[in-house]
Design brief:
Blueprint: H1 3-24, E1 35-39, E2 43-46, E3 55-59, E4 64-67, E5 69-70, E6 75-80, E7 83-88, E8 92-94, H2 100-109
Antiparallel strand pairs: 1-4, 1-8, 2-3, 5-6, 6-7
Helix pairs in contact: 1-2
Amino acid sequence: MTFKSRTKCMSLLLVIVLAVSVFILPKSGEAATTYKMTTTVESNIRTGDSVKYAIIGYYKAGTTVTFNAKTKNNWYRITYKGKVGYVSGKCLAPYKAQSFTALNTEAKKHLGKKI
């Protein structure tokens, strides 16, 4: 095996390990229970857990967000621009991680590139 091919193999392995670790390792400062969800429609962020509360922002459809708590009436709590915010569970779907095949395909795109 030549030095160049060995370097390519090591680079690919490093990219795969880093990509997998993003999904496995806990993030510093995360609460014990977190919910990673994706918005299914444009979703308002409110100051409380009902539509009666003021809107402080919004997420576009398809945005993936990590929530730190769920209320009794199916709203998810986040920190949004330094404020506590809530998004209705009706606007959310469970986050689906990329498959290994997709990660592997992405890693292969970077073979031979200088880091």
